[in-house]
Fold this sequence. Notes:
It is a single chain. The protein is built from three helices and twelve strands, in the order βββββββαβββββαα. The protein has a four-stranded mixed sheet. Strands 1-2-3 form a three-stranded antiparallel sheet, with no helix packed on it. The chain is elongated. 28% of the residues are buried. The mean pLDDT is 96.
Amino acid sequence: xxxTNLNEQTVxxxxxxxxxxxxxxxxxxxxxxxxxxRLRPVAAATVVNEANEVLLLWRHRFITDSxxxxxxxxxxxxxxxxxxAAAREMEEETGWRPxxxxxxxxxxPSNGLTDARHHLYWSEEACWTGPPSDAFESxxxxxxxxxxVPDMIARCEVPAAGMAAGLxxxxxxxxx
Length: 176
């Protein structure tokens, strides 16, 4: 049941993504044209403090016109280490510099259309460095009790699937 990509051609490209058209052989020998989006990896990070509170951002996503809680996240720059990108994004968006980061999980949020990979990390410590340099990224940043996360996800307050999965994994790791 494996599909085979015979060839790809870029039909649009900018610094954020490429739209390609692939010539694909499907099981049974048929062929089809399939559009796909090639994206740079995304790195995300958060911290859980001694009170088992997780640092989250409340933000609006104009594409879906929705509000929700998220981890600090952004695109990994060319040549940048993924964990270093996660730490950089967390400090830029929250004003908190994480301590040593632990891998949480890697997800492919839409692997039928894109090759996007989101790498999520967490830390058990962070230090305040000052107001976030990218404060426009969110309306507020808050320490949320980790025990509330499953109910927040059930109420659709964490709409991004990768963020929800990462927070559930973090809930499991910290609270069982």
